[in-house]
Design a protein that fits this description.
5 helices, 3-stranded antiparallel beta sheet
Length: 174
């Protein structure tokens, strides 16, 4: 049975295997991985997971360009299946292109409904935080994300060109 867990160094091996499935240059939405993060060494990976956990503390500073966010990993036992994050507020970039919630599921775990399930869980967390609506975005050709967002109640606002390419922008009222 899958569960949402806080990022943990315990899953380093499984996380690395998932990253290899995506490929070295792939962006894993919702994972919070920055270009300066060392995820290869156990020490670097532990430091990165600690930073992700610290980002949810609104009194702590976050890296430039980032916002406070809560990160979860989708896991089944000791297997990392994907990630999802809830950004507590939007900066200009997130309002245009990134949204409040990002998620990704490793290729070998797709088509099991994990993204839809995880989104539902995180929408509940957003309600608890007092949010009244959240923005989600996806690439126009990403039919899996379109279905996930629409199943979660997403209403398409627009499709626009952004700094990172065209994006479908959906709002979910909570």
């Amino acid at each position: 049975m899958p569960e949402l867990i806080a990022p943990t160094p315990r899953l380093h091996g499984s996380w690395t295997a998932a990253q290899e499935e995506w490929g070295a240059d792939a962006h894993m939405d919702g994972a919070g991985l920055g270009s300066d993060d060392d995820v290869d060494s156990p020490e670097g990976f532990a430091a990165w997971t600690e930073k992700l956990r610290r980002y949810q503390d609104r009194s702590a500073a976050v890296d430039h360009g980032r916002v406070h966010a809560t990160y979860w990993w989708i896991a089944e036992g000791d297997t990392y299946l994907g990630a999802i994050d809830l950004r507590h507020y939007l900066n200009g970039f997130l309002l245009d292109a990134g949204g409040h919630i990002g998620y990704s599921v490793r290729p070998s775990a797709r088509r099991r409904g994990l993204a839809t399930w995880a989104l539902s869980e995180v929408l509940h967390e957003a309600r608890i935080m007092g949010m009244d609506r959240v923005l989600l975005t996806c690439d126009p050709g990403n039919e899996g994300s379109v279905r996930t967002i629409e199943r979660g109640g997403g209403v398409l606002e627009d499709v626009r060109e952004t700094l990172i390419g065209p994006k479908r922008r959906y709002w979910i009222t909570l």
